[in-house]
């Protein structure tokens, strides 16, 4: 029979001599038992909620433990697995009294609803604006309503002018032939692997600075020098995204005290802004020395916006001009280069696709008239009309973006109570994350082979066939469809074709390739490759 007195004696025999045995009373044991029973019940109940809600829901802290665990691994794969379990939509419940609550979706019907049918009810919203305000200010990515509309209209018009097209293609041509290929040649000469992601980031950074500012920071040149502005820009995007997973009050307090990640963010943003302010000052000075028609020789966005007036008929402030440029750099810098990095990694794993792209480029060069034949391989420059003909390459790039979209997750906020087409109820103020990365991994959207890299799924009768923007959302959709989409395809095709036509690219064996948590889908450790010149 259970005897409490005997139990106490048993314990006292086994205690070191100098420890005075403490009496354990029945009520105390009962309290412990009750406490353990409650804990077990709560744990079982919370874990059982995983079936209904996709994740365990704990009292007070909600699903936060799962998020913390996910942050230590691959966040995008984690979101995808939860969305696959929950048929494409789930509600994330964070700790009580925090802002970490939202809905995740990857259902194309919901995406069409958000991005097109009910566009005005799903702005970027206060939460996104608050989180990104320090870095992006009132620039196009961070703006809604009139502030967004005005920038969108002006930029869209400018992107379609002949001067702008000339500026972008000319700058790209020079970057590839006078910078990229010499840098790649240097790595062959020195027989050292090269970080292709770093090289591509430098290329698109120089290219987009030309588009936004009309200046060339010179990131891509032999020796690959460190450019403080580019480094600060990267740090600022990386740290800004952390604000989405830290409770708002916490990062606001850290910002106020200027400590931890907020201190680093503050420093990086200051450096980005100082660079932009300097360019703006120099441009104003330069423009004031020109008159009339001479001003037309600048077709970058900064100069275009400098010539416009706000609602009150006043020229835009330097701060607003800075925001516009910083946002365009963010839009055009990382997106194409990280997409190209994933593309080259996928080609390394799929040599048959690489061979097909090489054959396509050779076929196009082969169609040139006799006078151009016999050109040295390195001196072949693809013309815009030839780049447009590379349909299989376009399919392969689209397939890479389907699996590794440059913007893996995007966010909107609901203004008025709403119901998604899949029945999910969204109260006013709810934050909605649409998981573009997860969409590429949904069998319900792309079929059983969704995780395979198959450019052929984009080809029909030998021609590239695009997909609905609500199924393939790498470039967003609806009124906020990426302004730079056509240019981005041109840029990626030109760069990819120039590399593949000239070199065999091989990823260094066993090189770790994993995504990094940032606004855009960087490879955490870059992409180390070796190059061999093609001959013949
Ligand atoms: C592979 C390359 C690219 C991809 C995957 C891409 C993707 C996207 C996505 C997903 C958005 C929506 C972002 C949001 O609203 O939160 C977007 C917007 C935008 N993109 Fe791109 N982009 C690419 C290249 C470019 C380039 C090269 C430029 C310009 C030089 C550019 C300019 C813009 C602009 C200005 C917006 C804002 C549109 C708006 O809010 O109205 N993009 N892009």
TrEMBL record:
<keyword id="KW-0479">Metal-binding</keyword>
<feature type="binding site" description="axial binding residue">
    <location>
        <position position="482"/>
    </location>
    <ligand>
        <name>heme</name>
    </ligand>
</feature>
<dbReference type="GO" id="GO:0004497">
    <property type="term" value="F:monooxygenase activity"/>
</dbReference>
<keyword id="KW-0503">Monooxygenase</keyword>
<dbReference type="GO" id="GO:0016020">
    <property type="term" value="C:membrane"/>
</dbReference>
<keyword id="KW-0349">Heme</keyword>
<keyword id="KW-1133">Transmembrane helix</keyword>
<dbReference type="GO" id="GO:0016705">
    <property type="term" value="F:oxidoreductase activity, acting on paired donors, with incorporation or reduction of molecular oxygen"/>
</dbReference>
<comment type="similarity">
    <text>Belongs to the cytochrome P450 family.</text>
</comment>
<dbReference type="InterPro" id="IPR002401">
    <property type="entry name" value="Cyt_P450_E_grp-I"/>
</dbReference>
<dbReference type="InterPro" id="IPR017972">
    <property type="entry name" value="Cyt_P450_CS"/>
</dbReference>
<dbReference type="GO" id="GO:0005506">
    <property type="term" value="F:iron ion binding"/>
</dbReference>
<keyword id="KW-0560">Oxidoreductase</keyword>
<keyword id="KW-0812">Transmembrane</keyword>
<dbReference type="Pfam" id="PF00067">
    <property type="entry name" value="p450"/>
</dbReference>
<dbReference type="GO" id="GO:0020037">
    <property type="term" value="F:heme binding"/>
</dbReference>
<protein>
    <recommendedName>
        <fullName>Cytochrome P450</fullName>
    </recommendedName>
</protein>
<dbReference type="InterPro" id="IPR036396">
    <property type="entry name" value="Cyt_P450_sf"/>
</dbReference>
<keyword id="KW-0408">Iron</keyword>
<dbReference type="InterPro" id="IPR001128">
    <property type="entry name" value="Cyt_P450"/>
</dbReference>
<keyword id="KW-0472">Membrane</keyword>
<dbReference type="GO" id="GO:0006629">
    <property type="term" value="P:lipid metabolic process"/>
</dbReference>
């Amino acid at each position: 029979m259970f005897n409490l007195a005997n139990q106490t004696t048993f314990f006292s025999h086994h205690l070191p001599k100098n420890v005075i045995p403490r009496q354990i009373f029945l009520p105390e044991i009962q309290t412990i038992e009750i406490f353990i029973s409650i804990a077990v019940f709560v744990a079982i109940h919370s874990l059982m909620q995983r079936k209904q809600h996709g994740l365990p829901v704990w009292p007070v802290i909600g699903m936060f433990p799962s998020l913390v665990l996910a942050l230590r691994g691959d966040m995008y794969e984690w979101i995808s697995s939860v969305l696959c379990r929950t048929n494409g939509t789930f509600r994330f419940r964070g700790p009580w009294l925090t802002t970490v609550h939202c809905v995740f979706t990857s259902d194309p019907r919901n995406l069409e609803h958000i991005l097109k049918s009910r566009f005005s009810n799903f702005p970027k919203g206060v939460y996104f604006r608050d989180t990104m305000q320090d870095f992006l200010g009132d620039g196009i990515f961070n703006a809604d309503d009139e502030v967004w509309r005005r920038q969108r209209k002006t930029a869209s018009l400018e992107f379609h002018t002949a001067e702008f097209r000339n500026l972008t293609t000319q700058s790209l041509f020079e970057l590839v032939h006078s910078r990229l290929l010499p840098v790649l040649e240097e790595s062959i000469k020195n027989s050292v692997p090269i970080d292709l992601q770093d090289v591509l980031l430098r290329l698109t950074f120089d290219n987009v600075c030309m588009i936004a500012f009309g200046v060339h920071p010179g990131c891509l040149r032999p020796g690959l020098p460190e450019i403080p502005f580019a480094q600060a820009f990267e740090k600022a995007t990386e740290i800004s995204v952390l604000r989405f997973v830290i409770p708002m009050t916490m990062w606001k307090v850290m910002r106020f005290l200027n400590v931890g990640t907020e201190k680093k963010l503050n420093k990086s943003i200051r450096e980005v802004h100082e660079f932009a302010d300097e360019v703006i000052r120099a441009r104003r000075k330069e423009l004031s020395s020109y008159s009339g028609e001479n001003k037309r020789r600048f077709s970058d966005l900064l100069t275009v916006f400098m010539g416009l007036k706000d609602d009150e008929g006043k020229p835009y402030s330097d701060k607003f001009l800075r925001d516009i440029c910083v946002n365009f750099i963010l839009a055009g810098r990382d997106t194409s280069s990280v997409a190209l990095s994933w593309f080259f990694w996928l080609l390394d794993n799929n040599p048959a696709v690489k061979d097909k792209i090489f054959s396509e480029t050779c076929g196009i060069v082969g169609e040139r008239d006799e006078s151009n034949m016999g050109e040295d391989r390195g001196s072949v420059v693809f013309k815009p009309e030839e780049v447009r003909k590379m349909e299989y390459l376009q399919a392969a790039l689209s397939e890479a973006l389907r699996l590794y979209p440059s913007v893996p997750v995007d966010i909107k906020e609901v203004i008025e109570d709403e119901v998604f087409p899949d029945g999910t109820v969204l109260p006013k103020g709810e934050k909605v994350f649409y998981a573009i990365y997860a969409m590429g991994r949904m069998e319900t959207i792309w079929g059983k082979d969704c995780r395979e890299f198959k450019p052929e799924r984009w080809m029909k009768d030998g021609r590239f066939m695009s997909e609905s923007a609500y199924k393939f959302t790498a470039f967003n959709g609806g009124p906020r469809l990426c302004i730079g989409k056509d240019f981005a395809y041109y840029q990626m095709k030109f760069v990819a074709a120039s590399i593949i036509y000239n070199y065999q690219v091989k990823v260094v064996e066993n090189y770790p390739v994993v995504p990094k948590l940032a606004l855009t889908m960087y490879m955490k450790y870059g992409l180390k490759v070796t190059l061999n010149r093609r001959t013949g």
